[in-house]
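# nightly structure sweep
# worker-07 picked up a monomer target from the shared queue
# config: single-sequence mode, recycle default, output format = structure tokens
# input follows
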Amino acid sequence: MWNQAWQYVISHPDKIFEWTLQHLYIILVANALAAVFGVLIGIYISGKGRQRIADTVIYLASIMMTVPSLALYGILMGILSALTLPSIGFLPVVIALTLYGLLPIIRNTYTAIREVDPAMIEAGRGMGMSEIQILVKVKLPLAVPVIMAGLRQAVVMNIGIAAIGAYIGAGGLGQPIFRGIANYRTDLILVGAIFVSLLAILADLLMGGLEWLTTPKGVRTRRRR
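# output follows
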């Protein structure tokens, strides 16, 4: 079984490369959208007097995480079909992954901004900064490590969920898995599962490096201590 999987990898590197590129493209688009919307929503709900809105938004995002991926794909296919948009393939999978990626990013952005030291905020106000300047120059730089941790979680999680998207024609590394299931070929199932896992591990390492690079030096120093 393992030998057959290895032989398939050696004899079909072009297919594996193509599937990997498709998978990466889906992940990059979906998580870029999730990052933009998640950070903006997280910033908005972290404002004063928005605790009830924050609780509602985080609750709804949490509910989204409980919806099985195939069920969500099915719902989106019906909605997109009614809107005369492409109901299979790339679009519904990207929308689903964007929705799945929102929770960790929104939650981490909200938590990180709310937990910024009030003394640093008051110092910014004392220097004559506006609320926007405090957000951009004080809150967000300090919140970056936590926000990146949320994005890291979303990316790794979505790599696995994206494999199921091959079931509705989105391509990616889920293709060998579903072909293997349909044709009773464990070698194809293994190839797909192994490469999805490797991609998730590499993405986690890469996002960890980006998290470190985007962390302000002062925060890095405090972490070392």
